[in-house]
Amino acid sequence: MSVAPRIQPLPESQWDPEITAVFSRENRAAPGDGRVLNIFRTLAHHPKLLKRWTVFGNHVLFKSTLPPRERELVILRIGWLCRSEYEWGQHVRIGREAGLTDEEIRRIPIGPDAKDWSPSDADLLRAADELHHDSRISDATWERLAARYDRQQMLDLVFAVGQYTLVSMVLNSCGVELDPGVEGFPVGAAGSR
């Protein structure tokens, strides 16, 4: 990631009524302190895009049929694969809230073949890897996942990985800085600062 953001977060003093409405309606604040996250302040430079993207992003994050822990497992894996430190840092917190343990979070960078994953967790991680590398879940992985998840959940799985691949591309390309109090990649990890 660049040392300085390529697109600076838009200061609140420059928010127009449309942006102010999006932030108040969508509650885009950091947990507990009312700050609007850097990702949203960066996207505020394009109000119409921000407004439409938050609808899709909110589905993937808040209305997905995929259970939250499993959703966060694949989001963290794709954030890691895309080397998106911002995405990783934000979703470590969300992942913990969804039930991921610190030990599981430490294993995510290793991937689906890491020791101690359940077969179902390994399949989810493998699906994220296959989508990242091949833009397709393999037949074998799909078959195992489809035995556990219904069609809506399978679609939500693919869309979660796709959404956070897109978000990672934006974060990395724009150089969005970590929000205060958010840790990035683990120190010493491949891809860390």
What does this structure look like?
There is one protein chain. This protein is mainly alpha-helical and 193 residues long. Helices cover 59% and strands 0% of the residues. The protein contains nine helices and no strands. α1 packs parallel to α3, α3 packs across α9 and α4 runs parallel beside α9. The longest helix has 24 residues. The chain is globular. It starts with 16 loop residues before the first helix and ends in a 19-residue tail after the last helix.
Q: How far do the termini sit from each other? A: 9 Å
Largest sheet: none
Please estimate the helix content. Answer: 55-70%
Mean pLDDT: 91
Number of DSSP helices?
9
Count of β-strands = 0
- Please tell me what the overall shape is: globular
Rg measurement, Å: 17 Å
Reading the helices and strands in chain order gives HHHHHHHHH
Strand composition percent? under 5%
